[in-house]
Amino acid sequence: MRLEKSCSEEVDVAQIQEMCVIFLRECPSGALHLHEFKRIFGVQSSSAEESLFLETIFRSFDTNQDNTLDFIEYVAALNLILRGNLEDRLKWSFKMYDRDGNGKLDRKEVKRLIRILQKIKLQKSEVGLTSSQICDRIFELVDDNNDGEITLGEFMEGAQKDEWLMDLLNLDADMSGWVIQNCRKLP
Fold first, then answer.
1. Rounded to a whole number, what is the largest CA-CA distance in the chain?
2. I need a surface site. Which of 8, 37, 67, 152 has the fewest CB within 10 A?
3. Can you give the pTM of this predicted structure?
4. Model pLDDT for residues 24-73, shown as the tens digit of each residue
5. pLDDT tens-digit profile of 131-175?
6. Nearest Cα residue to 69 out of 99, 21, 30, 97
7. How far is CA 184 from the centre of its chain?
8. Residue 23 — φ and ψ, nearest 5°?
9. Measured CA distances, 109 to 46, 114, 118, 161 (Å)
10. Alpha carbon 31 to chain centroid distance?
């Protein structure tokens, strides 16, 4: 099952060291700005969805909210994305998509997440569902108390028990391959 795969895969320490060297080469000042973060991951200005996704990731790791990632924030981000366990990555994913920070995902936030993931993955749902239909299905699977909002607990439980949902969220829950691939785009 997909959960076992994502939990058992480990990133080589040499790969993390390579990304740290890239940080130091690209940001000798020790402060990584959003535009540099996008450049490191090879995001072109014409890719609005990927740009928005990386901006969301960047903001989630800017713990002191100074609009830069220092080396410690960068290493913490790499550690979570590349070596973190499934539970920690799901908590991070939830936090990242909870745009208003109220601890719950509403339909607007979930539809936004679906649109971003579909465009980044460059594919429509394999069953031909629209964003609204996928959103409805997610709420049917995960919103246990039918209050129109998904709590962190509902999100984590639903993602771990439903393979379709885990596959949809795969870019968030198991990003190590995506990070490594995009980091290698640098000259």
1. 50
2. 8
3. 0.70
4. 887 888 898 998 888 776 666 566 777 777 888 888 889 899 999 998 89
5. 888 899 999 999 999 999 999 999 999 888 888 888 776 544 445
6. 30
7. 18
8. -55, -50
9. 23, 9, 14, 21
10. 21
Q: How many CB atoms lie within 10 A of CB 34?
A: 16
In the block, which residue shows the tokens 């995902």? 105
- The predicted-structure confidence for 109-136, as pLDDT tens digits, reads as follows 998 888 877 776 655 445 577 888 889 9
Instruction: For 52-120, give the DSSP string.
Output: HHHHHHHHHH-TT-SSEEEHHHHHHHHIIIII--HHHHHHHHHHHH-TT-SSEE-HHHHHHHHHHHHHH
Q: Give the tokens for residue 161.
A: 């028990």
Both tokens assigned to 56:
């969301």
- C-alpha pair distances (Å), 57 with each of 2, 141, 179, 182: 23, 26, 12, 14
Which is nearest to 60 in space by CA: 97, 35, 96? Answer: 96
d(CA 154, CA 66): 31
Structure tokens at 187: 């000259």
